[in-house]
Amino acid sequence: MNSPSCVSVDRPDWDIFCAVVDNYGDIGVCWRLARQLSAELGMSVRLWVDDLASFARLCPSLAPSLDAQSIEGIEVRRWDAAALPAVTPAKQVIEAFACNLPEGFVQAMAACQPAPVWINLEYLSAEDWVGGCHGLPSPHPSLPLRKHFFFPGFRDNTGGVLGEADVSARREAQLADPAAGWAALGLTPPLAGELTVSLFCYGGERVDAWLDALLAHGEPVHVLVPDGRGAAEAAHWCGQWLAPGWQGQRGAVRVQGLPFVEQREYDRLLWLCDLNLVRGEDSFVRAQWAARPFVWHIYPQDDCAHLDKLRAFLALYAAELPAASAAALTDFWLAWNHGVGIEPAWRALLAERAALAEHARRWAAQLAQRDTLAVNLARFCESLL
Ligand code: TRH
To answer: Catalytic site residue 26?
Structure first.
């Protein structure tokens, strides 16, 4: 029987459920997707998040104490598994990264007529098998519901990557006036001849080893380190405590801590730096949109599955690079992820800087020619309605 509330006019277009497992990638991706569905596709979005304090770090206008609030036209709800309010499920429901929807909500979905389109949004990977699994259905064992697996990816047989329609235009506008960009970040522009590098990683001894390599190389470098893992190592390397506003210098290497900024401000930093060290999933994609050379510290998994994922992306990304540049890139990414052999790999990477910069611009231009994940997702769901 139809649930009367399912035909209610205020049934949103999307429910997105996000469990913050670790760090900021889960909410970073969900928030970005919510904003694109709302701002670019004009859809109504309700975003359920189980950890509003983490969310507030990349969205400072959010009040973590509130159970419900509207931010940029998106209805943000606290997801408290023990006390989920009785709401009518949206027309499309996203279970981000297999976060397991609340049982009561699944029952409410089953009672809806028509049942919502149910999507499990997966992690991004460049591995070949992704194309074969993208879009596959999985029937619920007992309820009249089917969940579909939506895989982001870099090939045409995948869901694509997240990116705003105007990301390239905003980047280019910023680069036309870099001094204004640095000022907006509260920073002074780089000194003449100085290489500017952002560092966002999972920390560890690699940070010291890399800073030592910079020092040994002797070239002037300014390293900008957002608050988080890796920042303590960087501060200690230059004899500083991890306190707000910390900065230090050894030889030609200046190192400076930055606050964790709003998601769009982090983009600005990536656009302005010559090289970006990024991690996880979302900053990894944003570094690609920045059209600058980058290094990916992949989220480590216990079974080392991340290494296959790393190699798959490298193979794709480096396919059109000259052999020497591809080798230098691969060697440094592996050195960085394993934390060994960083110094020689860094020297080789710097020698290929010009070719890598040109390639990064080409790669971003190719990304911009594809439909974005939000567009692909909306189209996929439409086909299931
Ligand atoms: O925080 P992460 O390590 O997240 C990871 C990955 O998503 C990984 O795949 C997942 O399994 C694990 O979490 C649980 O890295 P990521 O994905 O780059 O997310 C960081 C987010 O933080 C991204 O949206 C950018 C944002 N950010 C800011 O908004 N401001 C900042 O100052 C910085 C440094 C980042």
So the answer is: yes
